[in-house]
Amino acid sequence: MTERLGADIRALRKSRGSTLQALSGKVGRSVGWLSQVERGITEPSVRDLDLIAESLGVSISLFFRSASKRPQEHGIVLRAEDRIPIGSSESGLVEELLSPTLGGAFEMIRSVFEPGSDSGGLRPARDREDGGVIVSGRLTIEINGGEFDLGPGDSFQFSGGAYAWRNEGDQRAVVIWVISPPVY
Fold this sequence. Notes:
2 domains, Jelly Rolls, alpha+beta, 434 Repressor (Amino-terminal Domain), single chain
């Protein structure tokens, strides 16, 4: 996945006439780091990938492409083995797009939050609705100033609010997240 992702980023960057220096400046990372990403040596976090996609003028969903070999399932079924994880355990968050297509009214994402990880502060409110269910572990979510400690089976839903998350536990928190309209 890392090599294909890096090759995609390099191809997009070059097709837009951008240099390593220019793109690294836009995403706030070093030229060396971006070069390693493009060569498949380093895997960017979800946040880094979002910044790269935004800087290149594409949706982050481009990097979640399925490797499915079953054409009759395209847009209907997404097999577990065809999902492409984005992010790394070192960054604290790994996500997989569960939705077979982004053409619908919502998308589903499997998010795995490592112990001790956090969102790095409030994420800005966006014109969308979010919801989810905690599958395992514990996750604290701050939504519109309220703080909620959630465990397995607990669910949440909010619309257009700023939010933050953190995993203060000693095990991974797995969340199935639903977003409408799709953002990836």
